[in-house]
Design goal:
By secondary structure, the chain is α/β, with parallel strands linked by helices. The protein has nine helices and six strands. Helix 3 links the parallel strand 1 and strand 2. It binds zinc ion (ZN). The site of zinc ion has 7 residues, from loops.
């Protein structure tokens, strides 16, 4: 018994030493825990949002034509470049343009580029024309199978015609229907409408003239990415002499860019407020 008790005592001592040793080793390793590793866990700056800007038309497709020969493709790329510069200030956004020069990019390709880039937001930028030269003002569009009105349907048909070389129009309404189902499952449609309304509000506040019923809906092929909130803005009518003149004035192009930057800020600002609530 004595022998066995001694053995047990010895064993306990050994165990005690081991535990003490390992705990002091633990203490040592705890002391050695690198402080930078802990700091790394703290959130730093939020990841910049990726904005894809889509200046309409380009290359062989000039888009709408003005009374004085202004081409839509040239006006919208200047506004897109100004907006790109303004969005980059402050590091809150990264910006990708679907075309950076005067090149023809099919509509499908524009959607594919935004998806490939995993965009957080997509804005297609256009300028329109109208048979009535008195019609003027900006308007904003989101995707819908049923157009909100005849003019929006006609506009979507005009803009979609830009992709005729590659877009199978017979399948187009199918694509829109499928996209809308996917969008409603993922909340993309609501986000798109919220973004469009934000642009209308910001334009209103910034003194940008708006078309009556400024936010409309139709089946725009370029807005058919199911995961990316998207809107299309028509900056004005090149068929109206006042709008045409304004759209070619650099200060007005910069002002439009500033209003669109404020819209993007408001969209993401409101988005994070909703998530916090
Ligand atoms: Zn256009």
């Amino acid at each position: 018994m004595d022998v066995r008790r001694r053995d047990v005592t010895a064993a306990l001592l050994v165990l005690g030493t081991l535990v003490a040793g390992s705990s002091s080793a633990y203490a040592r390793s705890a002391k050695k825990l690198p402080a930078p590793a802990i700091r790394k866990l703290k959130p730093v700056a939020p990841k910049p949002k990726l904005i894809v800007l889509d200046p309409g038309h380009g290359g062989k497709d000039p888009g709408a034509l003005g009374l004085r020969g202004t081409q839509e493709k040239n006006v919208v790329i200047r506004v897109a470049r100004d907006l790109q510069q303004q969005l980059k200030v402050g590091g809150r956004y990264r910006v990708v343009l679907t075309r950076s020069g005067d090149t023809f990019i099919p509509l499908r390709e524009r959607v594919a580029r935004a998806e490939e880039a995993k965009a957080d937001l997509f804005l297609s930028i256009h300028a329109d024309s109208h048979p009535d030269p008195g019609v003027r003002g900006a308007s904003v569009y989101t995707l819908s199978e049923e157009a909100s009105d005849r003019e929006a349907a006609a506009l979507a048909a005009r803009e979609n015609a830009s992709g005729l070389a590659t877009l199978d129009l017979s399948r187009h309404s199918d694509t829109v229907a499928k996209t809308l189902v996917a969008m409603s499952q993922r909340g993309t449609g609501n986000a798109s409408r919220r973004f469009a309304d934000t642009i209308v509000e910001t334009f209103g506040r910034s003194g940008v003239r708006l078309l009556p019923r400024s936010h409309r809906e139709a089946g725009f092929a370029v807005l058919t990415s199911p995961d990316i909130p998207a809107a299309l803005v028509e900056l004005g009518y090149l068929s109206n002499r006042y709008d045409e003149k304004l759209l070619t004035v650099p200060q007005h192009q910069v002002a439009l860019g500033r209003a669109l930057r404020a819209s993007v800020d408001a969209y993401f600002g409101a988005g994070s407020a909703t998530r916090k609530a």
